[in-house]
Amino acid sequence: MRYAQCVIRAGFLRNPFQYGGVVGGAQFCNRRQELTDLRRAMENAEKLFVYSERRLGKTSLIKHALSKLPKREYATAYVDLWATDNESSFVTATAKAIAESMGRTTAQLLDTGKRLFSRLLPNVTLDDEGKPKISFSLKSDAAPRPEIEEVLEAPAKVADHTEKKVVVIFDEVQRILEYNGDQIERRLRSTIQTHTRVSYIFMGSRKHLVQEMFLNKSRPLYRAAGHYPLGPIDTREWLPFIQEKFAAGDKPIKEEIVRAICDLTQGHPFYTQHLCHALWELAEPGAEVRANLIELAVKVLLDRES
User: Which residues sit opposite 123 in a β-bridge?
Assistant: First the structure.
């Protein structure tokens, strides 16, 4: 009952702690070193493999890093491979991301689609908000061998055409292992090593699979990219972030309380944001956050799960 009452009283205040999706803007807890390292890799057209367990904020981190790149200097393509299950869907998903990196209007999407992907059929439709979106299909049912080459060469062509640095992100890259054969891995290896103005960031969350891809000497992508394991966020980073958020809501919280939170969550971004979200709603505006509220917030979260 008290939890519901607190939610009602604090309902006019936006909870600053976000979890369960991509976190950006003011809700992103600063990973200064990681952002610096990624920016350097992108500037130098490096190939990098970023991996961690699930819910450690890889996607939030990479999208935050991309948002900081000056658009006049960079073209960025984010390829989410989670929904792909074969070579054909890899080809169309990658083509879509590359086309969208070149523009957002219907004319820009169609022009890019036709200019870069002569072997694919582009289709532009409008989403629920009336914004154009592009998709691609193969011109035939045959195995997409030439199409793979065309799509993988496209980032280098974009770099030459725009005179920009290009960054390509392959998220959930371990999905490639579930395709029939290693054709995509072989083509990736032979293509990306010749691209001197394109940075490739491979991201994965199933450690044993991604290590199989990049550390097994028998796999085509063995040592094709540098390794960058992503860990939890240090308490030193959480301290100012959490204290500032609570202070902005007139709910002051002492350093020792924040440290107790981080001890419980071990700095894991999802669990830290989740616990702070519940704690924020339980805390009374104008009153200092007490240690006993942490136990109550944990109980609220456990009750939800049960």
Answer: 135
Cα-based distances in Å from 9 to 121, 243, 251, 261: 54, 21, 13, 24
120-126/132-138 β-pairing: antiparallel
- Domain locations along the chain: 2-25+233-305, 30-229
Q: Give the model's confidence band at 10: pLDDT under 50 very low, under 70 low, under 90 confident, else very high.
A: very low
Sheet holding 165-171, edge to edge: 74-80, 165-171, 198-204, 47-51, 226-229
Q: What is the pLDDT of residue 208?
A: 75
Tokens at 31, concatenated: 């990973």
Answer whether 227's CB lies under 8 Å from 195's CB: no
Could you say which architecture CATH assigns to the domain 30-229?
3-Layer(aba) Sandwich (3.40)
Express each pLDDT in 106-144 by its tens digit: 999 999 999 999 999 999 999 888 899 999 998 876 667
Phi, psi (rounded to 5 degrees) for 108: -65, -45
The single-letter code of the amino acid at 220 is: P
DSSP 167-192: EEEEETGGGGGGSSSSHHHHHHHHHH
